Structures are given as structure tokens and as C-alpha cells.
Amino acid sequence: MTLSTKKIRLPLHGVLLLDKSAGHSSNDVLIKAKRLLNAQKAGHTGTLDPFATGLLPLCFGEATKFAQDLLDASKTYDAVIHLGIVTSTGDTEGERLRVCDVNVTAAKIDAALAQFRGDIRQVPPMYSALKREGRPLYEYARAGITLEREARAVTIHSLECIDYKAPYLTIRVSCSKGTYIRVLGEDIGEVLGCGGHLKALRRTGVGALRVEGANTLESIEATSQEQRAGLLAPVDTLLSTFSPLSLTDELARRFLHGQRLALGKENVHLPNQRERMRVYRASDGKLLGTAQLMEFGVLAPERLIVA
Predict the structure, then answer these.
(1) 69 catalytic residue (yes or no)
(2) Which long-range contacts (CB under 8 A, 24 or more apart) does 5-9 make?
(3) Of residues 19, 28, 49, 91, which has the active-site annotation?
(4) E strand or H helix at 185, and its extent?
(5) Rounded to two decimals, what is the model's pTM?
(6) Residue 20 near residue 29, CB atoms below 8 Å
(7) Which of 120, 123, 169, 217 fits a 20 to 30 Å CA distance from 5?
(8) What confidence tens digit (pLDDT) does each residue in 81-140 have?
(9) How far is 170 from 160, CA to CA, in rounded Å?
(10) Nearest to 85 by CA among 181, 160, 190
(11) Are 156 and 117 in contact (CB under 8 A)?
(12) Phi and psi dihedrals of 33, rounded to 5?
């Protein structure tokens, strides 16, 4: 009798820029990517609805420690709003609730979009993963229950029409975390007087990361097992907006022990104001983690890389 042996997972560290296709949940895609790379540990940086496509950064190993930074980052989307039809979910997966005639001009579209730029308030949709008394809202919605939801502040950094062929309005939006593009599409439809729902949604950017050149599950499957680890971008890809800071070997050792460091001009070039840093060891360029540079040149460790 032979004993089955458990497959040994690899301790991979880095970021996989994935171009998610429609019809799959973000968690399903994560599980499949983790299996394809045979990785020990992986996590995503915020979900995309199953019908949505586009950039889904996946973090492996030590990169999972910095996933929150992408959760908090601004996002960029291209969205197609089907004007004239309101659905129960705000997208193509819901039931039709209302059908209206569409009588929209370019001028009306420009005026409508202008109302949503800047700081706005949104009421989260019932079909969302937000929880009430431990249960996601979509469970209540599926049971036919509608709960009161408090409007939340979000910011629309930019919003433009990139195409309009009635009844389809295509917009490009850059927004803060927590923005529901489905709600934005519905609200734009209401301002235009005809209602609407999202026909398609594609995320093109997360923070400084872009979907161009991202991998698909199909392209990963077509790559040999030996080459798949090479698809991972370095961990500090997630930290490109942080200023770099290099430490001597002795300071690096103390930093990795979680000690606050009083930095002097002789050790490192200090910026002029308090800010978050990505910290490296000068002798080999190894990323050590992130830190806050405080008043008086005190470096306070945040998240450390131990691998």
C-alpha cells in the first residue's frame, strides 16, 4: 500500500496583476490562481462583481501584508450604462423593474455627469456585501427585505463620457474606495430622467497599477509550471506611491526587530515632512517593509517583511 503525499506549496512572494474575465467571483479566481502557481498563501485586494472584468491584483506571501494599501487606493473604471431599464440589482443580473423611453442629448449627458464630480454621497445598494447584524445585505435582498441604509461620502475624482450610442452610455470614472459604480450608473440614469443599469463594468486601474499587460487565467495556464512564479511582480509594486528610504545594515537589523529609529542626516537623506516610506536595506536593496517617518526624523515601523 502506498501512502498519498500532500503536495508541497511554494513560499511565493509578490503581486500577480490579473485581468479577470466575466462570470467568475473574485474568490474563485483567487483560488484558481493560487492553485496554478502552487502557492502557500494568497489574498486579493478588493473584489469585483462576477459580471465585471478587469484588474484584480492578487497578493502572494509577504505581499498580503500590504493588501490594505490597495483596498484604500482610488480605482478607475470603464462602465456601460444601459439607459431606459432599471433592474433590481443595478446591473444585468437583476430583474427588470421599470422600462422608460430614452430621450437624451449630449448636452444633457454633460450636465448630468457634472452633478457627480467631486465629493458626493451614495446610498449603498441592497445587493452588496455590507453587513447588518452579521449578515450581508444581499441575503436580505434575496429574501425580499429592504433595509434602511445610511448614505456614505465618496469622491469622484474624474467622470467623463467616452461614448454614447443610445441607449448605451459609456463612462470613465476615477473614484475613491467604497464607491459603487452600479449606484453611480443608476443615479446618472435617474438624473437623465430615464433610469438605467450597468450593462458592463471593467476596472482599468487600482492606485498606480494598470490593467495593460495583466495576466489572464488562460495565459497563466498556457505558461509552464516552472515559469509561473516569474509572472509575479515584486512586493514593492504595491508601494510605488511611497517614498523610498534606505538603511545601513545596523539600522536595518534594528528596524526588522520593530524598533523605532532616530535617523540623522549622516545615515539617510530625510524628507522635509512626515510621510509613509518603503524601507530598504542599502547593502543589497532588499525591501524591509513600510514605516512612518515622524517628527524629528523618527522612523516608526509599520509592516515588516520577514521572508
Answers:
(1) no
(2) 7/38, 9/38, 9/39, 9/40
(3) 49
(4) helix 181-191
(5) 0.88
(6) yes
(7) 217
(8) 999 999 999 999 889 999 999 999 999 999 999 999 999 999 888 777 777 877 777 777
(9) 9
(10) 190
(11) yes
(12) -65, -40
